[in-house]
């Protein structure tokens, strides 16, 4: 069964995810002492990588991450903001974690929502695509910056994303994924991830 | 000319390749002292990466690596088995090589078989797709784990895969790729690779 | 509006880009003391990676980088030439920069040209695809070789590629992208990049 898509919620979630992952990618670039351009590239790769991967996997060509000017603007803006206003480097690592959690939440929901409303994509695949959307940008960011990807180092990184994706896909099975369900799923991912960060 | 596909052999080869590459990916994770989740992620990336790359290159969307529950189960199981029962770390490196050779063999054959039976894919492309299927998972595993990919360090890593893919594609040109031909091609890849490991 | 494609210019640009990126990839392999096979793999990855990424993003399946024998031959030849005739390692770093600039120019133009003549691809997307085609092979080369990608370390690496892509896409908006326009755009990219290398 294919749901009617929910374009405005999809866009809002994509925008939130793109912007915060651009901040997180930019901060990693600042920490590694890249110049403005390196920071922008890392911001865009982190921000857009997960969504591009998602769209390649479900055959949405060309991927929105390279075709929707709003997402491109959000990614560039996030990188620029980071470069201009980043706080002291000492506080960056902690802040990257929080931004990562927000991005993880937005992208887990956005990725599974887009996948589950694509013809030919099964519920299990939609969950996996949701997780890959959520973790993909961070993996690309970490590979480019030469550090071991976060997803390999922390138990509770992909698990909250998977929970959120399962919630979205389960709602979709019953035919209704309203805005409340989507934002609740995102809040769940964020909360579980932040508890994990706190306990770490 | 497009062959009738051979779904059961395709699935069997994919399953063997996925399971052993999951073990090899998991063992690299154990060696790097990742926790359970990191081991599972590395196992799944190594196990499913090559097949996902293959399916992206030949337009088989969504890739079976994220849609066939049997492959997903084999990948997860391989990672779990590794984490629970891995032998002493001292012996791991050697064992990874043997598993790698089995996976290389299964995926070179599975990759070229699937490609050569896809409309619009030429024999040369099918050979290349076979090689990329075989080496792709290992490359992704090594990049994620922060080590130089095996395929760059060893002369006779991609060459056996290419031999096997050429055998499969040559048989396909004559219209018959029976189970015997497939498993013989896989045995050839494994044998050549193990001789190379032994001589190394 | 979709232009008539310009297959001979497209092929010539692709061939130039593939050959020089094969040399640059091979030289990085020589510098890292890989053996013949490692050098060939790195050469092919650097040479064909950007074009394969482009074709995945615009849905040109299977990618020409794994299906056109002329590109495959150029990539292999570039790797072989590098391995056999590479100059003293001391001079390699400088030479890689020049080759990189030629490849950047050819691929920025080839990538944006192919994208802008693909139905459903907007001008902005065509520019981004041009840049990704130009920088993609180098990023893959650097990740495989275990070094931080050039595109993150140098301000004026992606910018010249973007200029060239914008020129091509702008001409395409007016319906005419003749050979003169294409080679002028490539010369512009090369010149800006070489000035940047010189000032560095």
Please provide a written account of the structure.
3 copies of one chain form a homotrimer. With 200 residues, chain A is an all-alpha fold. Chain A has one domain (8-199). Chain A has helices spanning 7-31, 36-58, 69-85, 92-116, 123-145, 150-153, 158-173, 179-199. In chain A, helix 2 (36-58) runs antiparallel to helix 3 and helix 4 runs parallel beside helix 7 (158-173). Chain A is globular. The model of chain A has no long low-confidence stretch (mean pLDDT 89). Chains in contact: A-B, A-C, B-C. Chains A and B meet through helix 2, helix 5 and helix 6 of A and helix 2 and helix 5 of B.
Radius of gyration of chain A: 16 Å
The chain-level structural class of chain A is mainly alpha
The helix-strand sequence of chain A is HHHHHHHH
Largest sheet of chain A: none
Number of strands of chain A: 0
Summarize the topology:
The structure is a homotrimer of 200-residue chains.
Chain A lengths: L6 H25 L4 H23 L10 H17 L6 H25 L6 H23 L4 H4 L4 H16 L5 H21 L1
Helix pairs in contact in A: 1-2, 1-3, 1-4, 1-5, 2-3, 2-5, 4-5, 4-7, 4-8, 5-7, 7-8
Describe this structure in a few short sentences.
The first copy, chain A, is mostly helical. Chain A is 77% helix and 0% strand.
